[in-house]
Amino acid sequence: TDGRHFRHLTILVREGAEAHVIESHLASGGFSNVVIEYVLEPGAVLHRSVYQDGAPEAVQAATATVRLGRGARLEQCALGFGSLLSRIETRIWHDAGESQAQLDGAYIASSGRHIDFTSEVRHAAPDCATTQTAKGAAYAGGRGVFQGKFHVARDAQHTDAQMEHHALLLEEGAEVDAKP
After folding, report:
1. What is the C-alpha to C-alpha distance for residues 104 and 60, in angstroms, rounded to an integer?
2. CA–CA separation, 111 vs 124, rounded Å?
């Protein structure tokens, strides 16, 4: 192959069902771009685990969109080690009331590696909750990025949205950029 990999998947979690999904984003080189759309019907639960580790010359983008129905719940845990350039991006829509999302993640960027955790959460309905905690560490020559954004619609009353990012610069020359 020519080192380019593109995938687009849609996963539907039916009403009241519970799903466990483990994603591995591993690249030995080249460019990979994966988009996964999750649709959670009312009362559905998704446990999503994401593992990213690419070769130092790989470029990787993994994007997930998650649409939460009434009372649906997302529990996400991501672990990233970076590559030449890598991004784990999560976009969440609270489409109906009483849905919940918990986004947890950790990253370690060693020399020559870049890892980016990006999230955008839209609270479009009342009584929804999102909690996000990201922790990271970078060595000399490594770069970690955390970007997070919450949008709360005017009529999305009683929204509970919390975001945390903690990072360590382990050596001189390490870099972490945070835009919560």
Report:
1. 20
2. 40
